[in-house]
Specification:
Number of strands: 0
Structural class: mainly alpha
Helix content: over 70%
Number of helices: 5
Distance between the termini: 23 Å
Shape: elongated
Protein backbone atom coordinates (compact mmCIF):
# COMPACT_ATOMS: atom_id res chain seq x y z
CA UNK A 1 0.00 0.00 0.00
CA UNK A 2 1.46 3.33 -1.05
CA UNK A 3 -0.57 5.50 1.30
CA UNK A 4 1.47 7.79 3.52
CA UNK A 5 0.55 6.98 7.10
CA UNK A 6 1.44 10.50 8.19
CA UNK A 7 -1.28 11.91 5.89
CA UNK A 8 -3.83 9.60 7.50
CA UNK A 9 -2.71 10.72 10.97
CA UNK A 10 -3.01 14.35 9.90
CA UNK A 11 -6.51 13.77 8.52
CA UNK A 12 -7.56 12.09 11.75
CA UNK A 13 -6.16 15.06 13.67
CA UNK A 14 -8.53 17.30 11.71
CA UNK A 15 -11.46 14.94 12.47
CA UNK A 16 -11.80 13.57 8.93
CA UNK A 17 -14.29 10.74 8.64
CA UNK A 18 -13.28 7.31 7.42
CA UNK A 19 -15.06 8.02 4.14
CA UNK A 20 -13.12 11.24 3.66
CA UNK A 21 -9.82 9.48 4.42
CA UNK A 22 -10.68 6.77 1.90
CA UNK A 23 -11.79 9.10 -0.90
CA UNK A 24 -9.29 11.93 -0.40
CA UNK A 25 -6.12 10.07 0.65
CA UNK A 26 -6.16 6.28 0.20
CA UNK A 27 -7.77 5.92 -3.25
CA UNK A 28 -5.79 8.73 -4.96
CA UNK A 29 -2.53 7.37 -3.52
CA UNK A 30 -3.24 3.89 -4.87
CA UNK A 31 -4.70 4.67 -8.31
CA UNK A 32 -1.63 3.36 -10.14
CA UNK A 33 -1.89 0.07 -8.25
CA UNK A 34 -5.55 -0.28 -9.23
CA UNK A 35 -4.81 0.43 -12.89
CA UNK A 36 -1.86 -1.99 -13.00
CA UNK A 37 -4.00 -4.68 -11.40
CA UNK A 38 -6.63 -4.13 -14.09
CA UNK A 39 -4.00 -4.49 -16.82
CA UNK A 40 -2.78 -7.81 -15.44
CA UNK A 41 -6.20 -9.24 -14.69
CA UNK A 42 -7.73 -8.62 -18.13
CA UNK A 43 -5.95 -11.65 -19.53
CA UNK A 44 -6.65 -13.75 -16.46
CA UNK A 45 -10.37 -12.96 -16.60
CA UNK A 46 -10.53 -14.10 -20.23
CA UNK A 47 -8.70 -17.31 -19.32
CA UNK A 48 -11.28 -17.95 -16.60
CA UNK A 49 -14.23 -17.34 -18.91
CA UNK A 50 -12.85 -19.55 -21.66
CA UNK A 51 -11.96 -22.30 -19.18
CA UNK A 52 -15.54 -22.28 -17.92
CA UNK A 53 -16.83 -22.47 -21.47
CA UNK A 54 -14.52 -25.41 -22.17
CA UNK A 55 -16.19 -27.38 -19.40
CA UNK A 56 -19.91 -26.60 -19.38
CA UNK A 57 -20.95 -24.31 -22.21
CA UNK A 58 -23.13 -24.97 -25.25
CA UNK A 59 -22.09 -21.68 -26.90
CA UNK A 60 -19.27 -19.17 -26.86
CA UNK A 61 -15.68 -19.03 -27.97
CA UNK A 62 -14.52 -21.71 -25.54
CA UNK A 63 -17.17 -24.06 -26.88
CA UNK A 64 -16.13 -23.29 -30.47
CA UNK A 65 -12.49 -24.06 -29.65
CA UNK A 66 -13.39 -27.41 -28.10
CA UNK A 67 -15.89 -28.27 -30.84
CA UNK A 68 -13.46 -27.27 -33.58
CA UNK A 69 -10.82 -29.52 -32.02
CA UNK A 70 -13.23 -32.46 -31.83
CA UNK A 71 -14.33 -32.24 -35.48
CA UNK A 72 -10.84 -31.32 -36.75
CA UNK A 73 -11.77 -27.84 -37.99
CA UNK A 74 -8.61 -25.86 -37.41
CA UNK A 75 -10.10 -22.74 -39.00
CA UNK A 76 -12.83 -22.65 -36.32
CA UNK A 77 -10.25 -23.00 -33.55
CA UNK A 78 -7.89 -20.37 -34.95
CA UNK A 79 -10.70 -17.89 -35.65
CA UNK A 80 -11.86 -18.20 -32.04
CA UNK A 81 -8.32 -17.68 -30.75
CA UNK A 82 -7.85 -14.62 -32.98
CA UNK A 83 -11.15 -13.16 -31.74
CA UNK A 84 -9.97 -13.72 -28.16
CA UNK A 85 -6.74 -11.89 -28.94
CA UNK A 86 -8.63 -8.96 -30.44
CA UNK A 87 -11.00 -8.76 -27.45
CA UNK A 88 -8.06 -8.86 -25.03
CA UNK A 89 -6.30 -6.12 -27.00
CA UNK A 90 -9.40 -3.92 -27.01
CA UNK A 91 -9.92 -4.38 -23.28
CA UNK A 92 -6.27 -3.57 -22.58
CA UNK A 93 -6.52 -0.45 -24.76
CA UNK A 94 -9.64 0.61 -22.85
CA UNK A 95 -7.72 0.35 -19.57
CA UNK A 96 -4.84 2.37 -21.05
CA UNK A 97 -7.28 5.09 -22.12
CA UNK A 98 -8.86 5.04 -18.66
CA UNK A 99 -5.40 5.40 -17.12
CA UNK A 100 -4.58 8.38 -19.36
CA UNK A 101 -7.90 10.03 -18.53
CA UNK A 102 -7.48 9.49 -14.77
CA UNK A 103 -3.90 10.76 -14.76
CA UNK A 104 -4.90 13.80 -16.82
CA UNK A 105 -7.82 14.52 -14.49
CA UNK A 106 -5.65 14.00 -11.40
CA UNK A 107 -2.97 16.32 -12.82
CA UNK A 108 -5.36 19.24 -13.25
CA UNK A 109 -7.41 18.74 -10.12
Amino acid sequence: MRTDKELIKMARTFQASKWQILTKIVIPANLSTFINSLKVNIGLSLVGVISGEFLVSKAGLGYLIVYGGQVFKLDLVMTSVIILGIVAGLMYTAVLLLEKWILHYKKFK
